[in-house]
Amino acid sequence: MLGCQGGARVRSWLTLASGLVECLCFAGVVFGWASLVFVLKTEGYFSSSCIGTNRANETVTDCSGQDEQFSLVFTIASFMNNFLTLPNGFLFDRFGTMAARILAISLYTTGTLMVAFSGAVISMLLFPALSLITVGGMLFLITNIQVGNLFGSRRSTIITLYNGAFDSSSAVFLIIKVLYEKGVSLRSSFLFMSACSAVHLLRTFLLMPKTHIPYPLPEDYTYGMSCGKSKSYNLEGTRKEGDGGRESVPLQPEDKPQPESAEEPVPPVASFRSCVLSRFFLWHLLWLSVMQLRHYFFIGTLNPMLNRLTEGDPTLVSSYTNAFAFTQLCGVLCAPWNGLIMDRNKGKPLAPGETEKEADLRSSALSLFLTALQCLLFSICAAIPVLPLQYFTFVLQVLNRSFLYGGNAAFISIAFPACHFGKLYGLVMALSAVVSLLQYPCFTLVKGVLGGNPLYVNVALTLLGVLAFAHPLYVYLHCRQLAAGRSAAGEGRAGTAEDGPKL
């Protein structure tokens, strides 16, 4: 038995490490698009969109049409990254980890193969290819988030660590660019990424559960290749016909029936509809949407902003662009700090009558507030037209982005039933993606009416970002109300006990 327990610990850490590598090397590679575009332009993708024009007895090549095609590829892929998280979340909740990961591997492999066998003549393959890579990568992240359940006292830290690795995986396309300059062809790089799907399959069958990893984790829980018989748990405490034995928030293992006298009433699990209509979800959606819109607008206007602040100096623009790209690699280092903040209550004694979920909610309020505060500072710095200040803006941006997406996943896992995690995570990402489409009218406004100066839009988005503080305030007040209710109930019981002897 001790051997099984030791093997389970090793397997848990191996699952964590392999999942971190998976997210860091594959999940969010599409966000390194700027590096890949350099290679694709060299290869002549969409070169047919370049037009030669005569100016002052010189033939000048106008490739703005080519740039628009590349921009459209990324716009569609980034939108799919968020919007299709909704059906993927339903799939994960309904059919479990193995089914979701097999779909992810299929999509990802198809996408990388399409890039590998594409070329200047069939540049249009980039549209479906990048979207498939993006959707498959997001499914990798969704299925790995549950690994945090294996480390109860550090659950939020693990979740935010995975999200940070997802952000930092943009470096993969930068590596492909460097290898390309050293003589490694684009096809070879993407064929290698396709071949890595064999590793994803091995991890799926050996180191991941067939259904879900429950939380809280029972002492005898096993998954993957284990030395004992795997226990089967269901999501809502009672097995439903056709449910497939999904695991989460377990009551009792199915092969250990308890006598009727030992049975306790099972608290009802909130319905998906009630979760969506709750104030927690609505405030959280607002919190995520306004800050994500701010980040998307900043990234979309970064190049013209640098051109304006440097007065068109290409050397300075290149230097600041490289600085921004390298700061993005630090996401995996920044994200765990948010998880440590959310996990700080672990190991501390709970207040009388306080549940572990209430303690987690109380800790999340500080994380939500710090994320909103970071975004406010980042937005203010981005709005100030001082070039050296942008180095600090880059640092705040990557720190806030890591806190934002890691905190988003961690809060949903804390505030709502585990059986709805995939659906709620997908829904909030999909709805926030719709809100992020507002960046396009913002771009149009800056280019048109404002003559290329985004100052007024930046000020408006900064003021809009203040709304994000409503979410941590609501969570804080909710926790205070729960604490006050426990205190009143305790005083009532104490009063009854004191009056008893007098009667």
Automatic annotation (TrEMBL):
GO terms for cellular component: membrane. Gene3D superfamilies: MFS general substrate transporter like domains. Its main location: membrane. Keywords: Membrane, Transmembrane, Transmembrane helix. The chain crosses the membrane at residues 12-39, 70-90, 102-126, 132-152, 280-299, 319-340, 366-391, 403-421, 428-450, 456-477. Residues 236-266 are annotated as: Disordered. It is found in: Membrane. It holds the Pfam family MFS_1. The keyword Transport does not apply. One of its GO terms (molecular function) is transmembrane transporter activity. It comes from the Eukaryota. Residues 237-246 have a biased composition (Basic and acidic residues). It is a multi-pass membrane protein. InterPro entries: MFS (IPR011701), MFS_trans_sf (IPR036259), SLC43A3 (IPR027197). PANTHER family: EQUILIBRATIVE NUCLEOBASE TRANSPORTER 1, SOLUTE CARRIER FAMILY 43 MEMBER 3-RELATED. This is Solute carrier family 43 member 3.
